Every structure is written in structure tokens, then in C-alpha cells.
Amino acid sequence: MDSNSKQKLDLTQLRSRMSEKPRTKAGQIRQAWPDIRALIDAGHSLKDIWRWLNEIGIEIGYARLSHYTGQLKRRDLSAARALCSGATPEPFSFSNDAIPPSVEDASTKTQKGDGAETELRSRNGDESSKLSTERGNFSKRKE
């Protein structure tokens, strides 16, 4: 190899893969996201979009699609806020777990007293909340 080939990258092969179907469902949804977002903005329901995606070969469950689109919407919102404030948005990737970020991590719960209250810590661990289970009341309240 000559020194000139080390200084210049040939991205032709990499760019040719842009139109290939991604291996993972998350990748397929990320690739289709601009079109999915445009359909949502045009007033189409996520259920209809889900059906259309399955018809064209992106076989994904509705709950998983809903989870992925929620994450992508939050990513877009975060990026928009960062642009407005002049900050750099953090890189995004789908989480490997199937639990949406809005659901508290059940592995951190601890019983209190007679079991009437369960303490839950948020995923980032810097705030806590309590879930009251007395008389079927499942309301979440901040401490």
C-alpha cells in the first residue's frame, strides 16, 4: 500500500450497504423512521403503519414497534432541545431490554412494613418514588 491510500478512505463499499435491509428489527425501524415519522405526522395511526411495515417485510410486533417509535421520538426531542440550547446531543442506541424507560426497574423494589408500600428507584438511581398498593390504589407519589 502506498502512503496516499492510507490518507484517503474509500467508503464506496460502505455506502453501497446503505440500501440493504439491516439485520436487526431495531435497525430496520431506524432505517424506516423518517417515513414512519412522516406517516404519523400525516395523521396515520401506528396500528396502520405497523400493518404496512409487516406487509413490506419488516416483521415486528405492535408492542415492539410502539416501544421503538417512542424511543426514536424521545431521541428526536432530545436532539431538538440540544440544538436549541447549543449542546451536543448524546449518541442513541436501543436498549437491549424489553422494558420501556418509563417503567421503573422492578429489580430494585423492596418491601416496607406490611407490604402496603413498595419503594422503587428510577433506572438512573438518583431519585426514588413510592407505589401505594393499599385498597387497590396503585398511584405513584414522589417523596
| Rg, Å, rounded | 22 Å
The total tally of domains equals 2
Q: First CA to last CA: what distance?
A: 64 Å
What's the pLDDT, averaged over the residues? 73
- The computed structural class is alpha+beta
Strand runs, count? 4
Shape type: globular
Uncertain runs: 99-143
Task: Spell the H/E element sequence.
Answer: HHHHHEEEE
Helix content: 40-55%
> Spatial order of the strands in the main sheet?
1-2-3-4
Proportion of residues in extended strands: 5-15%
Characterization of the model:
- Helix 3 packs across helix 5.
- The chain has two domains: 74 residues; 37 residues.
- The C terminus is likely disordered.
- A four-stranded antiparallel beta sheet has the order 1-2-3-4, with no helix packed on it.
- By secondary structure, the protein is α+β, with helices and mostly antiparallel strands.
- The chain contains five helices and four strands; from the N terminus they run αααααββββ.
